[in-house]
């Protein structure tokens, strides 16, 4: 009996996931195969950035050209799966029909919208509802914010319709093309490697450094000077105007006093590693105002593997762990995506005995970000992949249970205009 119900559950949920897989692959194909592209382009003609239709006629026609054919293909493939189930497991084949029933819901909704049935769009076209976004892009499911980016950020990314798994696997869950990305600690080893990788991904990069010389990176064996902005710890507010134009802020600066435990070392470690980073994060969050900001702006914070593992530098560990907890606390209410970079020992000026190369670490950071990893772990220590998720879950749960929603960020969310 247990085997029967396990098999039944597998066919039920598997057939639904299969339907979504067909849907996402159809969507991807519609962007690369001309016969489908001609139909799918109707969908991209429909909406303004506010997600209001250009006009009712185009809105209805787009469903006949795009949504109805898409759902019809889903139905054909789910019926084929049902036929396979009938042959392979005849006693439970009926449960495989749930994929087809699920698809019929999409087909019926698309026909209703195409026919102009009153209320059909409001009830069924959930990812295209106009109005202010209520949350940043979801991680595992497609919300309005996530899907908006497919229309108005990059049409060659964010393909998924309900679940984001296919985008994660394809590396299309985040597009860096055309994004303005500012990196602190840009004159350091990892900073320069990040600038190189981000630029190769199509981003427009800005180097933020405390030095007085322009940051130079190596591109194909040739030195390339990067747009460099100078800033100082304690004068973070001077970057306000710049942050208004930045899409992604990567907080990567830091200091390692190694074995020093003097009062000055304590002060410098916390001021640079913790509080300067926190002030920059808070300053950037104030620039998240419009729908586009909620959808496209992000913060990436290098909190380090020291959050959960010893770094053989007590003050580095203490200051980074404090920063990690502050990021965990504040991103509960953040109006945009906030990612953590949990990095193991890489060779740099701060750590000359690191075992990983900064170029490889930067490449992995960008790769995981494009798969929408919210906690980007790059390390040679397998324990970190176990310890950090457990620590982050428990600390985040503790903060949720014993703290209130931040009024400053809540008010910021509520004041956002509808337009993008």
UniProtKB/TrEMBL annotation:
Gene3D superfamilies per the UniProt record, alphabetical: NAD(P)-binding Rossmann-like Domain
Q: Which UniProt keywords apply?
A: Membrane, Transmembrane, Transmembrane helix
Q: Which residues cross the membrane?
A: 71-88
Keyword Transmembrane among record annotations: yes
Q: InterPro entries in the record, alphabetically?
A: NAD(P)-bd_dom_sf (IPR036291), SDR_fam (IPR002347)
What single Pfam family name could you report for this chain, choosing any that match? Answer: adh_short
The record's listing under NCBIfam families reads: PRK07424.1 (NF005653), PRK12367.1 (NF009035)
Name this protein carries in UniProt: Bifunctional sterol desaturase/short chain dehydrogenase
């Amino acid at each position: 009996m247990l085997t029967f119900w396990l098999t039944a559950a597998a066919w039920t949920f598997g057939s639904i996931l299969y339907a979504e897989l067909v849907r996402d692959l159809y969507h991807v194909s519609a962007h690369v195969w001309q016969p489908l592209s001609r139909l799918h382009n109707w969908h991209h003609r429909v909406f303004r950035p506010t997600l209001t239709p250009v006009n009712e006629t185009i809105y209805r026609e787009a469903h006949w050209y795009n949504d109805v054919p898409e759902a019809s293909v889903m139905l054909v493939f789910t019926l084929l799966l049902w036929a396979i189930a009938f042959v392979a497991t005849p006693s439970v084949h009926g449960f495989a029909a749930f994929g087809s029933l699920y698809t019929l819901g999409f087909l019926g909704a698309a026909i209703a919208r195409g026919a102009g049935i009153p209320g059909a769009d409001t009830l069924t076209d959930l990812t295209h509802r106009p109005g202010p976004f209520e949350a940043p892009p979801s991680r595992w499911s497609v919300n309005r914010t996530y899907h908006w980016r497919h229309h108005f950020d990059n049409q060659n990314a964010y393909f998924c319709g309900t679940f984001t798994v296919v985008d994660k696997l394809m590396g299309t869950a985040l597009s860096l093309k055309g994004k303005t990305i500012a990196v602190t600690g840009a004159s350091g080893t990892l900073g320069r490697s990040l600038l190189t990788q981000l630029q190769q991904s199509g981003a427009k990069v800005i180097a933020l450094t405390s030095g007085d010389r322009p940051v130079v990176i190596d591109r194909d064996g040739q030195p390339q000077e990067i747009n460099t902005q100078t800033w100082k710890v304690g004068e973070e507010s001077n970057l306000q105007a710049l942050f208004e134009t930045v899409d992604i802020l990567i907080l990567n600066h830091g200091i390692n006093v190694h074995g020093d435990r003097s009062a000055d070392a304590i002060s410098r470690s916390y001021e640079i590693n913790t509080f300067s980073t926190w002030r920059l994060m808070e300053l950037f969050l104030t620039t998240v105002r419009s729908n586009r900001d909620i959808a496209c702006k992000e913060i990436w914070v290098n909190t380090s593997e020291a959050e959960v593992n010893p770094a053989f530098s007590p003050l580095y560990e203490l200051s980074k762990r404090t920063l990690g907890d502050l990021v965990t606390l504040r991103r509960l209410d953040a109006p945009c995506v906030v990612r953590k970079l949990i990095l193991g020992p890489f060779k740099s000026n701060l750590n000359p005995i690191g075992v990983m190369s900064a170029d490889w670490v930067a490449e992995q950071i960008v790769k995981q970000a494009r798969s929408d990893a919210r906690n980007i772990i790059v390390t040679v220590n397998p324990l970190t992949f176990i310890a950090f998720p457990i620590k982050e879950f428990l600390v985040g749960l503790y903060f949720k249970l014993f703290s209130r929603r931040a009024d400053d960020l809540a008010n910021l969310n509520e004041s956002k205009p509808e337009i993008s």
